[in-house]
Amino acid sequence: MQPFDTRTAILDVSARLYADLGYSAVSMRDVAGVVGVTSANLYHHFKGKDELIREALAHVFTQKTAPLAELLERPDVTGERLEAFVDHFVRLLVEDRVFFRLLVRELVDGDGVRLRDLVQSVLEYPFRLVVGLTDPQQPEGERVLMAVSILGIILGHVQLAVLLPYLPGGQPEHADSSVITRHVSAVLRRVLDGTAESI
Amino acid sequence: MQPFDTRTAILDVSARLYADLGYSAVSMRDVAGVVGVTSANLYHHFKGKDELIREALAHVFTQKTAPLAELLERPDVTGERLEAFVDHFVRLLVEDRVFFRLLVRELVDGDGVRLRDLVQSVLEYPFRLVVGLTDPQQPEGERVLMAVSILGIILGHVQLAVLLPYLPGGQPEHADSSVITRHVSAVLRRVLDGTAESI
DNA sequence: GTCTATATTCCGATAGAC
DNA sequence: GTCTATCGGAATATAGAC
User: Fold this and answer.
1) Long-range contacts of range A71-74, CB-CB < 8 Å, 24 or more positions apart?
2) Do B146 and B122 meet the contact criterion of CB atoms below 8 Å apart?
3) How confident is the model at residue A122 (pLDDT cuts 50, 70, 90)?
4) Scanning A25, B85, B97, B139, which has its CA 20 to 30 A from the CA of A57?
5) Contacts of B138 (CB under 8 A, 6+ apart)
6) Strand D: which positions are within 7 A of a protein CB?
7) Does the pLDDT of residue A2 top 70, yes or no?
8) A-contacting residues of B 106-135, CB under 8 Å?
9) Which residues contact B81 (CB under 8 A, 6 or more apart)?
10) Chain B 3-32, CB below 8 Å of chain A: which residues?
């Protein structure tokens, strides 16, 4: 642990550039240039480009998922765990552009191994919570589908937000995390209350 | 118009490779090799890589959106226009892997100009329909947010489907278009009926 | 309209000095 | 741990013959 850890700096820069440009468009020279070292130095810290990007992904995902897990481990005393989860997840996706873009990129480009890693490091925990919010009297398959719908509506909402300036009636304010959180919470509460008292 | 139009073949191959690999990972040599011509030939039909990919996108989007527009222009006599729309849109995203991946890639990588093109060629029409399905007594902003939620839940559901094999309780059958259509239709019907009789 | 051949730049990766 | 120097190959793009 040094005051300025070169390896960590490389991981941070790699994650940001990969999130913005994608795997093939970010070169080892680019990363090195932003960090302020030579590209040869990158090969001292990492075996190659594949390993660098893979570790950068794990670096960001483990970093950003910890607070979410902490939230989910708190007991639900107010019955507003759904709102708290939506608020936190929307805020994470809207306000952390790097995290959001890494997530979407993995969903579209990830192979089987990387998708399983993504689930285990980021999505499995919130997924279990959301399944727990669905009607326990429904069969397992229905509850899984409902959980996917809930996570999907949040992801889709954030993803479509970039189109709002070009959609008829769309205002950029509709992409604010507070607006999205309020709206999605209301929709989900209506859906969940229609099936069971799940709080 | 020739029996085998080289230009059209180039556009089809470009769209497929770009959908699978992304902009930087698909080379002019790759496209030419699959089509069965030389890369120099591509520069006779298109000014460069940028123009090729841009025209390939427009080629696919205008092609695949026509049936959707046709559906939306039919009068809603049975009151099941929502179900018909969900069915068609889910089927399009699930069964046409090229279209789906192009759409997601544009959402994550597109700049202002390309996003506006995407809206005008693909999303504006279904968006107007979905706005029409929401409660007319709600203010415009609320109806827009609801429409984004409806499109978003479909997009998010299809997008998260790749994770189902790795999620607890997830079954690959949950990614079938018929299963997604039935589930999403039921959820949306519940949400929309909670606000107004919109049929 | 399609080809061969090539110019130029950039890429990932390595060797070896310090 | 960081550097200079460089290799071999692949990228976009062009010139010009057929």
Assistant:
1) A72/A125, A72/A126, A72/A129
2) no
3) confident
4) B97
5) B146, B195, B196
6) 1-5, 10-16
7) no
8) 107-110, 112, 115-116, 118-120, 123-124, 127-128, 131
9) B129, B133, B199
10) 21-25
In chain B, which residues have pLDDT < 50? 1, 197-199
Contact A159, B156 (CB under 8 A): yes
Task: Say how many C-beta atoms besides its own lie within 10 A of residue A137's C-beta.
Answer: 9
pLDDT at B3: 52
Q: Give the tens place of pLDDT for each residue, A75-96.
A: 878 878 889 889 999 999 999 9
CB proximity B177–strand D (7 Å threshold): no
B38-66: burial string, b at 16+ Cβ within 10 Å, e else? eeeebeeebeebeebbebbbebbbeebbe
Exposure string for A148-177, b = 16+ CB within 10 A, e = fewer: bbbbbbbbbbbbbbbbbebbeebeeebbeb
List, in order, residues 6 or more apart from B54 with CB less than 8 Å away.
Answer: B114
User: What SS3 class is residue B26?
Assistant: coil
- Burial class from Cβ neighbours inside 10 Å (0-12, 13-18, 19+) for residue A2 reads exposed
Asked whether the predicted pLDDT for residue A195 surpasses 70, the reply is: no
Half-sphere exposure of B138 (CA within 13 A, CB side): 20
Is there a contact between B163 and A119 (Cβ–Cβ < 8 Å)?
yes
The interface residues of chain B toward chain A in range 66-85, judged by CB-CB distance below 8 A, are none
- On average, the pLDDT of chain A sits at 92
Which pair of structure tokens corresponds to residue A35?
Answer: 């960090």
CB–CB of A152 and B151 under 8 A?
no
Report the alpha-carbon distance of residue B174 to residue B180 in Å, rounded.
Answer: 7
If you compute the radius of gyration of chain B from its CA atoms, what whole number of angstroms results?
19
pLDDT tens profile B66-114: 787 777 777 778 878 889 889 999 999 999 999 999 999 999 999 999 9
Protein chain A, residues 36-95, with a C-beta closer than 7 Å to any atom of nucleic acid strand D: 36-41, 44-45
Tell me, what's the pLDDT at B198?
40
CB of B29 nearer than 7 A to strand C: no
Residue B165 phi, psi dihedral angles, 5° rounding: -60, -20
